[in-house]
Amino acid sequence: MKFKTSMKRFKRHRDYGFFDQDIRLSKLSTLGDPLERLNNHIDFEMFRTLLQDTLTKEAKGKGGRPPYDYVMMFKVLILQRFYNISDDQVEPLQMMFQTVRRFGISENV
Q1: Number of other residues whose CB lies within 10 A of the CB of residue 19
Q2: Would you call 55 helix, strand, or coil by DSSP?
Q3: Alpha-carbon distance values, 41 to 7, 27, 38, 44 (Å)
Q4: Nearest 5 degrees, angle CA 89-CA 43-CA 87?
Q5: Which pairs count as long-range contacts for 46-55, CB under 8 Å and 24+ apart, including other chains?
Q6: Which of 3, 11, 70, 101 is the 20 to 30 Å CA partner of 57?
Q7: Do 51 and 71 contact (CB within 8 A), yes or no?
Q8: Average model confidence (pLDDT) for the chain?
Q9: Are 38 and 100 a contacting pair, CB within 8 Å?
Q10: CA 46 – CA 89 distance, rounded (Å)
Q11: Strand, coil or helix: 108
Q12: For residues 36 and 24, is the Cβ–Cβ distance under 8 A?
């Protein structure tokens, strides 16, 4: 009977410890995360009224899904332009990378 004594080379997502995500994000911050810098230097809430006034449409009837947050979708457009990615590539990207979530783009885009 052989026992596996070697350490795992790479951790799977479910193998991360409680503080591993925080350690990775702090390391990314020290390396200079461009999205974090952008989020710290620009107050995206100042665009909310402009976006809502420009993009809000009257409801055609009762019911329907409420629109996504305008500021979050504005950040998605910035992310697409910054990294040159398409609409279809945004969702898997933000599911994979914590830094995108820290930028303010939630999982349900």
Answers
A1: 9
A2: helix
A3: 41, 20, 5, 9
A4: 10
A5: 47/71, 47/74
A6: 101
A7: yes
A8: 76
A9: no
A10: 27
A11: coil
A12: no
Go through the chain and tell me how many residues it has. Answer: 109
Only one residue has tokens 């951790």, namely 11
Which tokens sit at 39? 């989020």
Q: Residue 100 burial by CB count (10 A; 0-12/13-18/19+): exposed, middle or buried?
A: buried
H helices of 1-109, in order, are 20-31, 34-41, 48-55, 70-83, 87-96, 98-103
Report residue 6 as tokens: 């070697």
Q: In this structure, which amino acid lies at residue 100?
A: V
